[in-house]
Amino acid sequence: MKNLFILLFIPLFTMAQPKLKMPTDPKATAETQKLYQNLAKLKDVGVMFGHQDDLAYGEGWVYEEGRSDVKDVCGDYPAVYGWELGHIELGDAYSLDSVHFDKIRGWIKTVYARGGVNTISWHLRNPLTGGSSWDVSSKDVVKSILPGGTKHELFKDYLDKLAAFFLTLKTDDGTYIPILFRPFHEHTGSWFWWGKNLCTIDEYKSLWKFTVSYLQNEKHIHHLIYTYSTDRFKTEEEYLERYPGDDIIDILGFDLYDRGPDYPEMLKSCAATVSKLAKEKKKIATISESGGPIATNTTWWTMVLETIRPFDISYFLVWRNPWQPAGHGAFAPYRGSPDSKDFIRFYNDKRTLFQNEVTTEKLYE
Ligand code: BMA
User: Fold this and answer.
1) What domains can you pick out in the chain, each with its CATH number?
2) Is 295 in the pocket of ligand 1 (CB under 6 A)?
3) What is the pLDDT of residue 11?
4) How far is ligand 1, taken at its centre, from the CA of residue 325, in Å?
5) In angstroms, what is the span from residue 97 Cα to ligand 1's centroid?
6) Which of 100, 247, 252, 361 is the most buried (most CB within 10 A)?
7) pLDDT tens-digit readout, 101-153
């Protein structure tokens, strides 16, 4: 009788329980698990808008408490905030974009306190040559930093410095602040030392695996949600060619800048692929970086929204509005920018989510 009960009841009971999505880190903190589950729910409601360095600086200003170019235009902050840690590995006080790490830590706390999402990218230096992330003069960099390589100890030192920063991302009561961590990005291109033509498939995957394992097992960091983000790609096979594995990746993303008339079509096809793959893998999809010619195309935001509307995309993040010459202009609107009217339409559309709609209760409880 007891056996019959087990046979019949247990499977029915398990079937009746909706399976909660879990981040891949088996020791992920409670807040990190909640964020992941809530991101999965929220993607059915809308797509969150994100902006790199939103609170740090903008068009014509630097470090003005509470200011944001996005808020200047639509009255609300983004829901997702991107931060960049390049040069943390050198032990520097400020990033490659001259933003102080102490300030970044402060903004990450502010964002968490108001229920926003923090995501971190890392344009780390080239450990083999001492050059920048863009130093692609050697194809041996990834190999050299993996176990057994000549720069392995140096790479571990880089990770130690990164880890030390992650371990300071805590609230006053000691709760670690969950972070979407997105290293080794745009690797389907070959402009960073970890790019496609600069290392083998196995080396790239091993780089990810080593990094995740080091942060989790040696540094005991369990408040990261790992985000895989390619550059533009044409097929599912290309997207997955260097994918390090379902066991360590939580979010499937891609970066795609508007560099010409093929953008809407490309955006649609990449968004369709990542949202399909995320569904199959029971993960979450994102457009992790974008930016367009908003100074001249005054309906860019409408085009983006209509292109991605049919897909389950958790967030769409545009890159920074540089305060120093950077080889590119502002990617988010700013006071008086030509695209402002269109951005307000984008903001008012039910499908887009900004800070007002994204609260601590919705994301972290
Ligand atoms: C790039 C540019 C650079 C910047 C880098 C890291 O896309 O914005 O100016 O240094 O990102 O943030």
Assistant:
1) 2-363 (3.20.20.80)
2) no
3) 52
4) 11
5) 7
6) 252
7) 999 999 999 999 999 999 999 999 999 999 999 999 999 999 999 999 999 99
